[in-house]
Amino acid sequence: MIEPRTLHPKLQAVLQTAEGLQQILGEHYEVIVHDLQHVESSIVAIYGNVTNREVGGPATNLLLQLLKNYGDEAPNKINYRSTLPDGRVLRSSTLFIRDETDRILGSLCINQDLTDYVVASKLLQGLTNIRDGQQDQPAQEVFSRDINDVVESMVRSELEVLGKPVAYMQKEDKLTIVENLEQKGIFDVKGAVEYVAERLGVTNFTVYNYLKTVRCARR
Fold this sequence. Notes:
- By secondary structure, the protein is α+β, with helices and mostly antiparallel strands.
- The protein contains seven helices and five strands; from the N terminus they run αββαβββααααα.
- It has helices at 9-25, 61-70, 115-128, 147-162, 171-183, 192-200, 204-218; strands at 29-35, 43-47, 77-83, 89-98, 104-113.
């Protein structure tokens, strides 16, 4: 719970418009006001629910980095891409709030959940894609000292290509990922089944069933 604090009049002024701004933008948006004099509990207002944060929450690593690197000269960042741990894609903007001497007091942050639009875009691209003399793209070779890093990179690459958060995936999507990974030899690595199962949110038994389906189809 955030402790009562006196906010600078400029922050108070932004607070008066933040809720209305979120209502204008709509349900896929979240508007947050930070008091950056207290970075450990900087969120003083949050409207909408995109990142599942609450009043009293801390500043993000980006805010801390900008303040560390630039101090009061920190630039606004507009329409940058960010990703939540569950795979949802956001378009975010951070606008700094300054006093009369240009000292940073806080920030107004706007996050838009683009996930539905990204999924729709992928669907439209698939429907309109024409393969005409398309050359194969060179493989991305992973040089690592640890085989687990290679496995993680291969799985991450397949998830990025599909372009869907796990929560949006159907059985066919997961089966496609397993098929692609099988073709790349990932399941020859000990522990790969367990890791893939964890990333896809299914059981080890399910991945083995997917593998059986893929291998039978190739015979």
